[in-house]
Specification:
By secondary structure, the protein is an all-alpha fold. It is built from 3 helices and no strands. The two termini are about 20 Å apart.
Length: about 70
Amino acid sequence: MDTLVLAAMNSSQSKDDWVKAQQHKLHKPIDVDTLMWVRNRLMRLEVEARWADRICVFEEFFPNDAIIPRI
């Protein structure tokens, strides 16, 4: 019984941490140099037809925040 309550508490804490991380990420300003680097990197990967790498860079820089991980 105690482990069930503890697991529920940990799950809630993990979700709170995830929400805080998302809020910080959304309100963190992005500098112009970073945007230019990402743009140039995406264009270079497109020219080289490295589609899997381009998708990875895009997903890392522009995460789909609509998907909430199940914790």
